[in-house]
Amino acid sequence: HDSTCGGGLRWQIPFANNGYDYKNSIANGCFFNMGARLARYTRNTTYSDWADRTWDWMWNIGFIDNKNYAIYDGAKVTNGCKDINRAEFSYNNAVFAEGAAFMYNYTNGNATWKARLDGLIKHGMEAFLPKGIAVEISCENAGTCTTDMLTFKGFLHRWYSTITQLAPYTAETIRPVLKTSAEAAMKQCTGGALGRQCGFKWASGVYDGKTGAGQEMAALSAAMSLLIPQAKAPVTEKDGGTSKGNPNAGGSGDDAQKKSKPITTADKAGAGILTILVLGSACGIFGWMSVGV
């Protein structure tokens, strides 16, 4: 997090990494989501302040479209983040929507956060769940999804299902759509020798011939999202959560902190002799190499 572009997180932390000069929505979305979750869990306003600041930065810089709540991928810092990459990915929408739901719940149904949540869900449904089936619009139809993009629809399902717990009024809108999408995902899991491998193009209704960890994760997440009505809502520090550490975790037995034996004169003498031998050998080798025989 720095002052370039007026704030916000960079995509990469090490300056030598590809992407260090890029500020993007997923980095800031995870930060926003974490702040919102911790604010609800702890009731500590420091976390909610950071969530507010992150949302405001995203809104003001234009990564969140001020008209339709589309969330664009990001921009390079070299021109003040003005040349925005307008590619949209489902997990960007979902991570902010879930974060907004946590803030809605934390603020006891604040009207501002409700409007933001509703805007994100409306756009998410229209863009990524047309006809009720998840589609990764920026790459799926063109067949250009990278390995990580193959997992995004799974995040969409998981985070949208959690929204229905935090903002129960959304359940009647979201859950039927997730059910339709999950059913489509399962119907195309017919690949491989055993006929159980999953592809990526759920809306096609047939296995697309390509499978892998990303496709399997996304399909599993879609199925798991249907279990949300039987799951408990995320807890807080006041109603069942615990964040206390255990300093003894990972240790066992009476000798977990066994002390080393005291160093004797013989130990020191032996170490000295070994050091002399190693240095002598190194000097001999370097000398031989320098002669050039």
UniProtKB/TrEMBL annotation:
The protein's enzyme class: hydrolase
GO aspect biological process, one term: carbohydrate catabolic process
Keywords: Glycoprotein, Glycosidase, Hydrolase, Membrane, Signal, Transmembrane, Transmembrane helix
Annotated stretches, region: Disordered: 234-262
Protein name as it appears in the record: mannan endo-1,6-alpha-mannosidase
Origin: domain of life: Eukaryota
UniProt similarity note: Belongs to the glycosyl hydrolase 76 family.
GO molecular function, a single term: mannan endo-1,6-alpha-mannosidase activity
Pfam family of the protein (one): Glyco_hydro_76
UniProt EC number: 3.2.1.101
Keyword Ligase tagged: no
Stretches that traverse the bilayer: 269-291
Origin species: Photinus pyralis (Common eastern firefly)
Catalytic activity: Random hydrolysis of (1->6)-alpha-D-mannosidic linkages in unbranched (1->6)-mannans
